[in-house]
Amino acid sequence: MADQIGFIGLGIMGRPMALNLRRAGHALWVHARRPENMAPLVAAGATACASAREVAEHSDIIFTMVSDTDDVEQVINGEHGIVEGLRPGSIVVDMSTISPSATRALADLLETLGGEMLDAPVSGGEKGAIDGTLSIMVGGKAKVFARVRPLFEKMGKNVIHIGDNGAGQVAKACNQVVITQAIAAIGEAYLLAAANGVDPRKVREALLGGFASSRALESHGLRMLDGNYQPGFKAHLHKKDMRIVMESATETGIALPGTALVTQLINTAVGQGMGEDDSISIFRIQQKLCGVQVDRQED
Amino acid sequence: MADQIGFIGLGIMGRPMALNLRRAGHALWVHARRPENMAPLVAAGATACASAREVAEHSDIIFTMVSDTDDVEQVINGEHGIVEGLRPGSIVVDMSTISPSATRALADLLETLGGEMLDAPVSGGEKGAIDGTLSIMVGGKAKVFARVRPLFEKMGKNVIHIGDNGAGQVAKACNQVVITQAIAAIGEAYLLAAANGVDPRKVREALLGGFASSRALESHGLRMLDGNYQPGFKAHLHKKDMRIVMESATETGIALPGTALVTQLINTAVGQGMGEDDSISIFRIQQKLCGVQVDRQED
């Protein structure tokens, strides 16, 4: 009999990801805190479950896509959680972006209960989730990864096994370290151009032709100039990711001063009511800081 | 009669750039502080001059490629400088990376003397200079740019007119703002990976597939992991560029905290004797700061 698949967490990301699994023909057991989030999946032929435990009772491979470390801990180990219904040999695949150390602890717990775990956070946002083009960074045993890989390939294009449990979360944290500083650096470049009376669009064009070129300059850099703060990736989720990055730096005892700096920008962007906007809103904070208007946004 | 071309400053960058002009068949008058630097040009058919003034006396378009703001001021306006020999309507094209505000002052001076000026700093390093694939960011009048453009195209591939005098220098400053923070961000990501026991090479591979991808991650990011600190672009020149960026931020009264932070890293890299190494040496400083060895370098 084919693997029974479970999916817990059907928000902006989880819903299209689960739909992509369902469309590939997999039997699917789903659960979401908000029952209305299950409706599109049920309409597509999935079975709604009243709890994570009920999903686990029916599933060989259980995906989780929720918001934060606490949510994953609740879904796995809380009341009516996965461990209460875990079948022997079942695999829990957490695709949320959460703490690497908490991930390692959950993997240990599941292993003692006869289960397996992969951490498989993604990048690529809502568009990547809908199109099935997410980047998926996976931590856990190679054997377990090999078994789940065909399912990952229904949801993503760049599916990479990084290392042991937690390594996927570490790679995602590294991704946020790089992308957040890339956005902030582009913002500073635009401010320097504008303060000198130089067109930032011309500067962007020049930089795209050389070593300063990046996917961020192509994509985020254009939206920043257009003052287009529609998400994309919401600032409050980016803030949560940066909290996880800085927690990991603290836990491992390393100094990441550049990351710490941009974390302050995203914190205050959310603090100033931009949490539901795209995380390039840090550029609005940079413009406020400098008293220079660069984007086309009308305030 | 075809334009007579002058070239002043025949160091690591200037020499191959001037050779590319000569190979394209242009009459060339050259000067360098070190006479031995003129030899390869003379061997290729250029005429050695005893001073910048002498170059100016023979040339319609005079390129300068020296180190710093003071050097350009000396070559143009110092003893035996260009202004002493400037022919009416001649164009001075400064391809050094120097201060935008000093550039605007020099352009004003040359205009009062009946000359013209373009600022045309480059990126792409020694390899780009040799291969004729530099990015060239140009400030000055559109008409003057149009006249010099065919010569730029002998030296570079991405030749972009950014704006008025100084705009090329501003674009180059923006380039350094972005690339330096990109290198430092990649360094922090590698440290976070290593501190968590995760292979930074796997992380790099994953990041190259998503929005965190960049030319810097492709090129600098690989050399950082290999511990390959051969220049490339020397740290002491990068330090000079960052000094110019921060001076411009101070002059224009804007806050660039991320740029300020990475400037500290490059300053201390040079201070610790890495000035002749590649500017990715800031990764060595980051590793020292964290007490974590990531690259393959043997110390």
Put the structure in a nutshell:
The first copy, chain A, is 55% helix and 13% strand.
Attribute tags:
3-stranded mixed beta sheet; alpha/beta; 6-stranded parallel beta sheet; N-(1-d-carboxylethyl)-l-norvaline Dehydrogenase, domain 2; Rossmann fold; 9 strands; homodimer; 299 residues; 13% strand; 2 domains
Describe the structure.
Chain A is α/β, with parallel strands linked by helices and 299 residues long. Chain A folds into 2 domains: 5-163, Rossmann fold (3-Layer(aba) Sandwich); 171-290, N-(1-d-carboxylethyl)-l-norvaline Dehydrogenase, domain 2, CATH 1.10.1040. Helices cover 55% and strands 13% of the residues of chain A. The first copy, chain A, contains 15 helices and 9 strands. Chain A has helices spanning 14-23, 39-43, 52-58, 69-77, 82-85, 100-112, 125-131, 142-155, 167-195, 200-208, 215-218, 220-226, 235-252, 257-274, 282-290, and strands at 5-8, 28-31, 47-48, 61-64, 91-94, 116-119, 122-123, 134-139, 156-163. In chain A, strands 3-2-1-4-5-6 form a 6-stranded parallel sheet, with helices on both faces. The first copy, chain A, has a 3-stranded mixed sheet with strand order 7-8-9. In chain A, α9 (167-195) crosses α10 (200-208), α9 (167-195) crosses α12 (220-226) and α9 (167-195) crosses α14 (257-274). Chain A is elongated. At the A-B interface, β9, α9, α10, α11 and α13 of A face β9, α9, α10, α11 and α13 of B.
SSE layout and pairings?
Two copies of one chain form a homodimer.
Chain A: E1 5-8, H1 14-23, E2 28-31, H2 39-43, E3 47-48, H3 52-58, E4 61-64, H4 69-77, H5 82-85, E5 91-94, H6 100-112, E6 116-119, E7 122-123, H7 125-131, E8 134-139, H8 142-155, E9 156-163, H9 167-195, H10 200-208, H11 215-218, H12 220-226, H13 235-252, H14 257-274, H15 282-290
Parallel strand pairs in A: 1-2, 1-4, 2-3, 4-5, 5-6, 8-9
Antiparallel strand pairs in A: 7-8
